[in-house]
Amino acid sequence: xxxxxxxxxxxxxxxSKKSSFKIFVPNFEINKGEKVLLLGESGSGKTTLLSLIxxxxxxxSGSISINGSTINKLSSKTKDEHRADNIGIIFQQFxxxxxxxxxxxxxxxxxxxxxxxxxxxxxxxxxxxxxxQLRLPNDIDQxxxxxxxxxxxxxxxxxxxxxxxxxxxxxxxPTSSLDTDAQQIFLDLMFEQISNNKSTLLMVSHDKSxxxxxxxxxxxxxxxxxxx
Amino acid sequence: xxxxxxxxxxxxxxxxxxMTVIAISFSLMLYMSVEKxxxxxxxxxxxTISQTDLIIGAxxxxxxxxxxxxxxxxxxxxxxxxxxxxxxxxxxxxxWAVPISLGDSHKGFRVMGTNKDFFARxxxxxxxxxxxxxxxxxxxxxxxxxxAGVAEKLGYDIDTPxxxxxxxxxFSEHDDQPFRVSGILEKTGTPVDNTVIVSLAAxxxxxxxxxxxxxxxxxxxxxxxxRKMDLTPKNITAALxxxxxxxxxxxxxxxxxxxxxxxxxxILPGAALQELWRVVGVVENLLLGISIxxxxxxxxxxxxxxxxxxxxxxxxxxxxxxxxASPRTVIGLLMLEAIFISVLSILLSIILLFFSLxxxxxxxxxxxxxxxxxxxxxxxxxxxxxxxxxxxILVSLLPAIRAYWFSINDGMTIKI
Lengths: 228, 416
Description:
The complex is a heterodimer.
Chain A: E1 4-14, E2 22-31, E3 35-39, H1 46-54, E4 61-66, E5 69-70, H2 76-86, E6 87-90, H3 102-112, H4 114-118, H5 123-133, H6 150-162, E7 168-172, H7 180-197, E8 200-205, E9 216-219, H8 220-223, E10 225-226
Parallel strand pairs in A: 3-8, 3-9, 6-7, 7-8
Antiparallel strand pairs in A: 1-2, 1-4, 2-10, 4-5
Helix pairs in contact in A: 3-5, 3-6, 6-7
Chain B: H1 2-12, H2 14-46, E1 54-58, H3 62-69, E2 80-81, H4 82-89, E3 94-106, E4 109-114, H5 117-121, E5 123-124, E6 128-129, E7 132-135, E8 143-146, H6 148-154, E9 161-162, E10 179-185, E11 195-199, H7 200-206, E12 210-211, E13 214-215, H8 223-228, E14 235-236, E15 238-243, H9 249-257, E16 264-267, H10 269-280, H11 282-312, H12 314-322, H13 327-368, H14 379-410
Parallel strand pairs in B: 4-11, 8-10
Antiparallel strand pairs in B: 1-15, 1-16, 2-14, 3-4, 3-15, 5-6, 7-10, 8-11, 9-10, 12-13
């Protein structure tokens, strides 16, 4: 069995030939169950790397393998399904559909993934259970997503990323819109849940102080080289 | 799930979406009312005269004969003699005939001489009869019956005396023989409303002292003497004919057109009305053109609104994509929205249309003589609605394609 959940080999990517932004990723691997912090300043290519891993962008050459399948060889439809099945995504902010209620937001990935919805017997109950463990208010199902505080929204996003036990959680600076205290609470809760789920976590941040929680700290500049 | 979220997304933008729906439904309503008026005007027009099989008159084009005999526009080129008329009436195919004599006027309204059969035989709007509103049909030689429009515009009532003028714009009046209003007809929405109706004998009577359009100088026959005279007309202008069997219409028409003693024309009112409508129907095409432009404008408006909401919703689409939605699903969501907006607008416009039409119908009928048909949506309306929905799907493709492009390129970046 493949121990790598993410395996990138000689990937080259740029938007266009004239673009000054060209990146090359010689080799990047993350093992199953690892919690990895990817450090880098904005503009360093972090988001592009995440987009490649999630399959939003296609590399020009090389291969990207996620949970055993080489996603750059998949059709765009299977790639979308693969993403739904395997990856829970947490954005920096504005994670939720503002007009939908909290529960609908959380169970949304299950609609697109047969694998993940098969892991959940009662969608509403598991969503509420996750909310409870993430210390969200008991009557959270009464709320519309837009009426939550930013910290609560980020926790709902964690619940959404974890529902149906995807093997990989990708978080793109999930704490950047929170203050220091809220950051700590948020990270405690997120780590607890990710450990419960035995998911792999790849989190991107520019904040080195978060490093102690993680199994591994990687500098983006060690992962990719800029080819200008 | 998708439907539910799509609906709540629309609901969240209630004001924008609501205004869009209102704007679209108003233009759809405008289109439908123009369309309804157009078809109703056509029906009312072609139903100006019904159940009359032939109209005969002196040799003229069918449109011309129609214009002066039914619409009282323009003049007859010639009259037909009473003998020719009787020859036609005595044909065995003829069931009934109503003679009409035109040429005089009263304060700009045409005076028509006919007999009482006219009121029984003249039908409009698919068989509706003329009814008398006040008074009675002419009994005395100098009785007149007024169309509703004449009575209203001139402020005449029963027993109002009036003088008939010779010709249409002449200053010589038949002032020696005053008339009296005996009856006023109900509003019909046909040219009858603007007609002053007298008996054929009365037309004959007022011309006793006249010869070839001018009064014979010095001659003035007293009314008492005129009343004793034989007032059978020598000429009439036209006649409405009904046949016993519709199968004989064309034979009879040919017979009349080929009548050797006098040049006569017999026309089929329906065909002549159609022909006439093609002339006045230019306005109809104009209305149709306007309607189409209105619909077109609406579609452009809808696209514009969708485009503007797109930048607002770029973030939302990135979320959908991250959850595993394919670009196709994202496009589908936008199209679903367009369909929903157009269906909602159509429903609202139908409600608006029926609401306003049922209010306005009596008023339009009274003032313009157009009976707007409110009851049903025509098959044609259904086609228009289907086309509109289809077109709205088509135009929503433009913003949807843009959304597709966004969702492919944005990837993990969430644009704010």
